[in-house]
Structures are given as structure tokens and as C-alpha cells.
Amino acid sequence: MSIKQSPKLSAEKRREQLLSSAQKLFLKKGYRRTTVDEIAKKVGLTKGAFYFHFDNKEHIFFDLVKLVLGNYMAKTKEISSQNPSPADFLRVLFEEKGECRSDNFCYNIDFWVQAMSIPKIKRYMNNSFKKVVDNFIDGVSSSGYKNSKINLKDLAVFTFSLFDGLWIRHVVQPSIIDIPAQIELFDTLLKNNYLFKNKRGNNEK
Amino acid sequence: MSIKQSPKLSAEKRREQLLSSAQKLFLKKGYRRTTVDEIAKKVGLTKGAFYFHFDNKEHIFFDLVKLVLGNYMAKTKEISSQNPSPADFLRVLFEEKGECRSDNFCYNIDFWVQAMSIPKIKRYMNNSFKKVVDNFIDGVSSSGYKNSKINLKDLAVFTFSLFDGLWIRHVVQPSIIDIPAQIELFDTLLKNNYLFKNKRGNNEK
Amino acid sequence: MSIKQSPKLSAEKRREQLLSSAQKLFLKKGYRRTTVDEIAKKVGLTKGAFYFHFDNKEHIFFDLVKLVLGNYMAKTKEISSQNPSPADFLRVLFEEKGECRSDNFCYNIDFWVQAMSIPKIKRYMNNSFKKVVDNFIDGVSSSGYKNSKINLKDLAVFTFSLFDGLWIRHVVQPSIIDIPAQIELFDTLLKNNYLFKNKRGNNEK
Amino acid sequence: MSIKQSPKLSAEKRREQLLSSAQKLFLKKGYRRTTVDEIAKKVGLTKGAFYFHFDNKEHIFFDLVKLVLGNYMAKTKEISSQNPSPADFLRVLFEEKGECRSDNFCYNIDFWVQAMSIPKIKRYMNNSFKKVVDNFIDGVSSSGYKNSKINLKDLAVFTFSLFDGLWIRHVVQPSIIDIPAQIELFDTLLKNNYLFKNKRGNNEK
DNA sequence: CATGAATGAGATTTCATTCAT
DNA sequence: GATGAATGAAATCTCATTCAT
Prior knowledge:
The structure is a homotetramer.
Chain A: H1 11-29, H2 36-41, H3 47-53, H4 57-80, H5 86-93, H6 109-116, H7 119-142, H8 152-172, H9 179-191, H10 194-200
Helix pairs in contact in A: 1-4, 4-5, 4-7, 5-8, 5-9, 7-8
The first copy, chain A, binds a DNA duplex through helix 3.
């Protein structure tokens, strides 16, 4: 009997498509609620094809965690060399100019909780976070945020936690939250602060 | 032959036990990963008994959302009458003195995502958030944070998003994050700010 | 919506039923070709019920291996105290008087191959076989089969291998093989043998 | 871009390679547990190539059954003209000198059960077995094993069942079983037997 | 001849829910 | 009120087979 097949693409292309599909779905519905069938169908394939490209559902998840964290680290690294303010980190993580694409970083707690339940990936994540914090410290100390009263590590945790919280609210209640305004607010709070004022001189970004 | 039965408690007691059990589990593992069996076993009952007290899994979830949001609203309402600073909201939500009990507020995105997927509860949540924001605005404006340059609604969103982010990181990576230090940092950032300084005079809480 | 349920039996009864059902099917079709659905349906249950009684398909298999080998050992132990001839072992293993019930011992190689692929069960099986061989040696040496020219351990292996071979042929081609005649033949070969003749005196069984 | 391909061999060569590969795998793991992918990979090909050479998995199985049984028949035919004792049949089936190559006869019950479930092959097998039995009878009666008390057909079944049983134990628990010793034992049992003694005179092989 | 991406049927397993006792 | 055996829908995963290149 004959079988209708989707056009064949290279494994590389398909892997990318499937990763992107999975990322969107995991973000929107969480790891558990997302089925392999959905991931595959979103790119016009069947379950079977999914298993040709990935060993199992957990594997695509691992790959995604690595991708996301790698991206995250790369971005923060990149910013750190440009004399950034803490708010600049938010700006870039939210993809320039507040245009937040919900398929871009899947900073979603379900994703995290799932990830943290697997020792291998948990270690990877803790290491990643340390690197991101280091990048942040490098970046902001070079741009005048070094201050005896503020522990820069705490400021990093503060910034990234704020990012997570904004991100989540953005995902869950997009109508309520205005990301660019929030970033501006963060920037304003820091710029008009005694703690940094004298250190940084004029605050043009 | 006789069957071992748990001592029969009043329906009211059992409901409370089950709600508490479900809350802890939903927080720790997410709605989907938590089974009815686990919820029941945690209080020494069987699945069957669960269905005597709740119509189904979604119902206990609804009840929990209402409970949690009610609590959240009550707390913020209470603080708002005590001339709070924004950081005070964090302080109280994190249960005073930085001692965070992980079973207290289940502000976990999986919980949210699940909740937002049900229209009835989505409306409820949006309304709750609006009330919480109003409580915040009431509170901080009475304590001198009214400032033409800062939109207080934005400051509320900022504060609650920060709370969410800190909370999540606390749940996922407890070893990395020092909640009291973060609250202090938030407080410091606001207190030493030009924007509020002249308006508020002395900042002792 | 309402559900039609099979009459409820005690877990103990159901386990026995399911074990028996699985034994017959594994014997007839092999482990792999037998589905959990079939095992359950054969006793009027659904897949779901199967998983209430057994953790998974491998577990029922383990239990069965233990049951079968335990039975095998017990039988050979029992015979060994009754001055048996080697053929008596076959007789009893084939359940008295050649009436072979195909659901009795599942001495089937698929069963074995599957079992041997799991280290835990492999050790168990090797130990069992050693015990069975010991029982055989005990039994036949007490009834005059001790003979310097014949290694009794070899005779044991010979007897049990013959049993396996007959059993398999009986399962696969029942029309071709006459078990009682084969047992008689084995007995005759031994009884009319110089090696044992002088040792055993008259050979009445 | 170019694709790595195995060197193209004649269809005949490939068929033989695939048959040999399949035989080894079916013996080791059973028909069901063996995948087409494994069969192909073992000779450096892909699934697709397999389907160029064989219509489907069942076909290669049929071909194998015929090959194996043909071999079996040919061997027994050959021996039967050499005045064999029953033990000689074992000897030859086990490939002279006790050096058992596990890839030679796949006399494995999974193989049989699978085969017997297909009527065409079942008839073929029953006929084969009859011929093998006839070869045996021809052989041993010419060498003095004709005896009124022993039905030679039973002796044939006995011998081949013993072979099966030894073979299986050899495959499953190679460390426990000493094939040459078993063959010797069989020979000894027959040689020192009243039933044949007077008929056969001296028994040197 | 051979590749390798894709299919689809079917197997194992999970779990919310039902219900007789 | 509570038990625990049973259901059934849905999810994950496997693998024989197809087919464009």
C-alpha cells in the first residue's frame, strides 16, 4: 500500500524545525502537556519521524536547554563588552527595543523545574547561571557600577530574577504588562541613584 | 475480612488537608506531574476518598487558585494600610524575616499556565492582579512614593514581577539566592534614589 | 459517564489468574509476541487492570520465572526422596502418566532467552539449575545409579536436556511426538544397561 | 553532496550476506526481537537496501527455514550412508569434534514457534522432520540397531529431541554444559545395552 | 543498487475517574 | 466516609515498510 510522505528535508533542517516547534510548545504549554505528536505535526511530520531525529522526548528537551542557555550566555557575554548598564542586559535578553518574541527564550519555570529534576542538566544549569552572573559583573563594573555598598553578585541575581518575573508575566498575562516601560523603569531607578551617581558621572548610555 | 481505614474526619478537615497536600505537590512538581493518588496518599487516604471530597482534579485546582489569590490579596491589602515601601510588599509576601516557607504561595508558572488555560479562572486572576496592584498603589502613595516621573502601576508590576522571579529562582536554585539580601537591595535602590528622596524625607520604616 | 466493570476479585486471586494467563501465552507465543492486552483480556480485564496488579510486563515475567523454577525445584526435590530412576524425573516433570498439560511448565526457549538477558534472573536460573542437578544426583545415587563409569552430573544434564527437547517438540509438533513412549524408551535404555545392571540388582520400579 | 554507499555487490552475494546476518540474529535474539535495521547494519547496509533484496521480513525468514532444514536433511542423509550409531547423528549435527558454532543451526524455539504459525512453512517442517527421521532409521538399521523391542522411530525422536535440548542449554548456559561429554554419554548408554549388544556384536565405530 | 527520511500501525505505560462493597 | 479493584483515553515509543533521490 502506498504512503503519502512529507517532502524530505535534510536531517539538519528537520532537527532545527523540530527544536523550534518544541520550544514554542514547551513554552506555551509546558513540557508535560506537550505531546510528541504535536511537536511533529507542527512541522508537518508524524510521530515516527520525530523519533528518527531524536531518541526520545527528553533528548529534545536536553538539546533545547543547552541551546537556550548557550544563547543566553552568548548574549550576556556579548553585552558585557559594551559598557552596559544592568538594564541593557534586560534589553538585549528581551531582544532589542522591547519587541518580545515569545518563541525566543523559553524562560519558563515548567521548563526549569523539569530540567532541574535531571541531575546532569541541573549541574549544567548551575554552571551556566554562574557564567551569566560573571558576564554581568564584568560588564557593569567596567561601566561604573562598582560600588562598595552594592554587591554586584546580588545586583546580577536581582536583574536576572527581574527578567524571569517579567518574562513570565509577559507570557501568562501579555495584556497587563508593558515590557519596554518596565525596562525603562529599571534604568531610571538605577540612573537616578545616589549610590552610582557620583561614580558614573553622566549616565548617557 | 476487615479493611484498614483512615480515621474518619469531618469533610471540612479533610478538604483542608487535601488542599494543603495538593498545594505542596503542585508547587513542587506542577499540576500535570502531580497525580490524584499522590495528593490523597500524602494525607493517608486513597484515590477513592479524594473523589468523595472533590469532583475532580480541576476542581481542587480552582479552589486552590482562589485560596492562593485570596491570601495574596489579603496580605497586600493588610500591608497597604501600614505606610509600606515597595520592598515591604516583598518582605510580607516572602513571609517576614526572609524565612520562606515553600508551601505557602504556589506562585509557579505551571500553576499559572494551567490556570490561564481556563477562561473562568483567567478572568478571576486578571481581576485579582488588578486588585493587588491597586493595593500596592494605595499603600506606597500614602508613604511618599508618589512621583510624577514614576508611574505607580509600573512600579507595582515591577515589584510583583521581581517577586515572581525571586520566588522561582528560590524554588529552583535555593543555594544560589539569598532572599533577604535581595529585598535589602531593592529597598536600598529605592531609598537612595533622587526620584523619591526629596519627596519622602527620612526613610525609616 | 458510567463504566462497565468486571466483577472485582481479591488482588491475590487476580494475580494468580494473570500469572496463569501470562504463562500460557508466553509459552504459546513467546514473551515478545504476547501483549499485555491479551494477558488481561484472557481473564476478562483491561490493560489498566493489569497495571494495577503488576508494575510492568517484565515484572510478571520475573514472577513467572521464579514460580516455574520454584515448582521445578520442588518437584525434583520431592522425587529425589523416592528412590527414583532418571526416567522418573521425566515422568514427574511431564506430570504423571504422560498427560502433558501445556500450561504447566513453561520450559520454552524464548522464555529462557528473555530471562537470560536479565542479569538478576540469569543468576537465579543458574543457581536453580545447580540445585535441580543436585536433587537429581541425590535421588538416583540412592537408587543404585552410582557407577564409576558414569558421571552423575552428566547424567543429570543429559536427562534435563532430553526433557527440554521433548518438551519443545511436544509444544511445537504435538502430533509427531509420543511423550509416554519416549519416557519408556529412556527407562528401557537405562534398565537394560550393563553399566547399571549389576549395581542395581532387579530393576522393579 | 555525495552519499557514502557500501560497495555494490551482486544481488546474490548480498542475499547470502543478509541471510547469514539474519540467521545469527534470529538465533541470538529471536525473530521478533531482531529488527530489519540490525540485519542490514550487520553487513554494512541500510534498511532500504534490505528491501531491495527481500520482499519483507517474513520472506527472509522463510528462506532461512528452508536453508536450515535443507542443511539438516542433507547432513543426516549423508551420515545415514556411513553405518552410524545414533550418537553419530548428534556428533555431525554438532559439527564434529564438539566444536559447536553457534551460527550454524538455528534450532531455537522462537524460530520454530514463528515458523509453525505459518501453515505453508509448518507443512514443510513436518515433512522435513519425517525425512530426517527416515534418514536416521535408514542409517542406524544398517548398523545393527534394529531391535524388536525398540521402535526406531521413537529412537529417532529421542535422538533429535536430545539434540534440541542439548543445543538449547548450550546456547543459553554454555558454561554449564559439556557437549562432547554428553555425546559420549549417549554413545556409552547405547553401546553397553543388552538390547543392542547381542545384535550388534562389537561396537567400534 | 543503495540511501535515509518518512509513515503508520501497534505495543507499553500512565492516570483521572468510576463504582461495588 | 473510605477502600481498592477496575476502566479507558491518551501518551510515549518501536519498527516493518515505503519511496524520492
